[in-house]
Write a structure and sequence with these properties.
The complex is a heterodimer of chains A (242) and B (292). Chain A has 10 helices and no strands. Chain A has 242 residues and is an all-alpha fold. Chain A has one domain: MetI-like fold. The longest helix of chain A has 32 residues. Chain B is of the alpha/beta class. Chain B has a domain of 187 residues: P-loop containing nucleotide triphosphate hydrolases (Rossmann fold, 3-Layer(aba) Sandwich), CATH 3.40.50.300. The radius of gyration of chain B is 20 Å and the shape is globular. The N and C termini of chain B lie far apart (50 Å). Classes of the chains: A mainly alpha (242), B alpha/beta (292). Chains A and B meet through helix 6 and helix 7 of A and helix 5, strand 6, helix 6 and helix 9 of B.
Chain lengths: 242, 292
């Protein structure tokens, strides 16, 4: 592993062992992960509030929603990829950054919701009542819930990021692979897991070495994220009511 | 119109003045912010008229007719499971969140029927502070705990909020203990301090009534004494309704006593009267400790 590998784009003859790096895959992975995590949180946090504040605990809708998210949680990512691929063919779309982001978002929403939900269900009812008795509406109480489950949200986000960044199957058909960094949402994008996959299948040992380097980079990114997540969790949990 | 404008804009904490101007011909505001520090002096009073509360098929409260006097401490006593807490929670309609609840009859607060669907529940709850059995600080700093309610009801501005925090922490006798650490998490306070914080928090939204649901039962003797003394001090300005399990406490601080048994009000009246000269057989038995 060398600095060139992570700071350069693939150049001519990259896949037969010539010089170049896999910066395209690193940047592509980060694009997809960051965008889909933000999107995923935007979608799943309102769902979480609906499940926990608006619906009562014995609500059938909440029960079935949780069941559905559990099922979705367990679906292999290749199924998401294939499903999205079928839709893309139907609409005549080509592999692109946007479709990669959408599929990964769909993939992590159940992860986010279910892991945040586990924390939110322990949310003491008394806090809700305390907030209501001060004249807060349910919408205003969201702030309180958010404060209480902040550490849970961080943990859930980490889990989701871990799943999103390591996923090869879902992006295989949807985001595609390319040697350049995309400049618009409609261009295909490379990702680290796919970089590992494609380079490892090359006969040339130099290329295979780069696959291991890419795998290492992937691991380091996840490690850095979870360590920083730990610190953030600690910062956020100081206000938590036990 | 006023209430619609308020309801539309409140969740976002916007500066709502311009919207209000759009809607209202009458500019004299009924917003909480403007009413601050000029508490209405009109008679505050709770009257229940033939109040029945059902939860699913259980008949929890059976035709309760009560008048709760203002600026007095009213203690509700009775054995466990007799509906004391439900009665208290009906007053600020927290029972609404229980599944399958049905309320029948009338509760008049300042002459306004709060059971009818017309009354605005958030305003009602602002008028009635609740101190629960277990202290329950919000997951925020001490400062934010006090200002949470104020912010919801439209009081902004650092200076004003600082004033509010100091004023009500002093009212709850907590100021000296926490003034140097207002921005530390509220959960780090001791239980007794937390309970007083909760009291200060409910006072900060300017209620007329305070409902206390066994407010001292989770506290150590010294803290509960502090809270009791606080209630006695506060009754000048607020009407206090408290549920208590300890007869001795009721004896110490009550001006007015309501004895409940199995969802019915058996006896209600001046504390001295009820304790010294109970009219009903059940009351006599309960006071002498025949059952609890």
């Amino acid at each position: 592993m060398s600095w060139e590998m992570i700071s350069q784009l693939p150049s001519g003859g990259f896949y037969i062992g010539k010089e170049g790096g896999f910066l395209n895959a690193i940047v592509g992975s980060l694009y997809i992960v960051i965008a889909s995590t933000v999107l995923g949180l935007l979608i799943s946090i309102p769902v979480l509030f609906y499940l926990n504040i608006y619906l009562s605990q014995k609500s059938k809708l909440a029960y079935f929603a949780r069941l559905a998210y559990d099922v979705l949680f367990g679906i292999p990512s290749i199924v998401y990829g294939a499903f999205a691929f079928a839709i893309m063919i139907f609409f005549g779309l080509r592999t692109s950054l946007l479709s990669g982001i959408i599929v990964i978002t769909l993939l992590i929403i159940p992860v986010l919701i279910r892991s945040m939900d586990e924390v939110a269900r322990d949310f003491p009812r008394e806090i809700l009542e305390a907030s209501f008795s001060l004249g807060a509406t349910r919408l205003e109480t969201v702030k309180v819930l958010l404060r209480q489950i902040a550490p849970g949200i961080v943990t859930a986000t980490l889990l989701a990021v871990g799943r999103a960044i390591g996923d090869a199957a879902a992006v295989l058909f949807t985001a595609g692979y390319t040697d350049t960094i995309p400049t618009s949402l409609s261009q295909p994008v490379a990702t680290l897991p796919l970089a590992v996959f494609f380079q490892l299948s090359s006969p040339s040992t130099e290329v295979q070495d780069r696959a291991y380097a890419a795998a290492l980079v992937l691991t380091i990114i996840v490690l850095v994220l979870s360590v920083s997540g730990r610190f953030i969790t600690r910062r956020f949990s100081k206000n938590k009511v036990k | 119109m006023n209430s619609i404008a308020q309801r539309l804009t409140r969740p976002f904490n916007w500066n709502t003045d311009w919207i209000r101007d759009l809607f209202l011909e009458d500019k004299s505001s009924t917003f909480a912010a403007d009413r601050k520090f000029e508490r209405s002096l009109e008679a505050s009073n709770i009257v229940t008229d033939n109040l029945n509360v059902f939860i699913k098929e259980h008949h929890i409260l059976k035709s309760v007719n009560l008048q709760i006097p203002e600026n007095k401490i009213t203690c509700i006593i009775g054995p466990s499971g007799c509906g004391k807490t439900t009665l208290l929670r009906t007053f600020n309609r927290l029972v609404d969140s229980i599944e399958g609840v049905k309320i029948d009859g009338k509760i008049l607060i300042d002459g306004e029927d709060i059971i009818s669907s017309k009354s605005e529940i958030t305003n009602l709850r602002r008028k009635i502070g609740l101190v629960s059995q277990r202290p329950c600080p919000l997951p925020m700093s001490i400062y934010d705990n006090i200002t949470y309610g104020c912010r919801i009801h439209g009081i902004h501005g650092k200076k004003k909020l600082n004033q509010v925090v100091e004023h009500y922490l002093k009212a709850a006798g907590l100021w000296e203990e926490v003034k140097d650490r207002l921005h530390t998490p509220a959960v780090r306070l001791s239980i007794g301090q937390q309970q007083r914080l909760c009291l200060a928090r409910s006072l900060a939204v300017e209620p007329q009534f305070i409902l206390a649901d066994e407010a001292t039962s989770a506290l150590d003797p010294i803290s509960s004494k502090t809270v009791e003394e606080l209630f006695v001090k506060l009754k000048k300005e607020y009407s206090i309704v408290m549920v208590t399990h300890t007869l001795r406490q009721a004896l110490r601080i009550a001006d007015y006593v309501v004895f409940m048994y199995l969802g019915e009000v058996i006896e209600a009246g001046e504390a001295k009267e009820v304790f010294n000269n109970p009219q009903q057989d059940l009351t006599r038995k309960y006071l002498s400790g025949a059952f609890s």
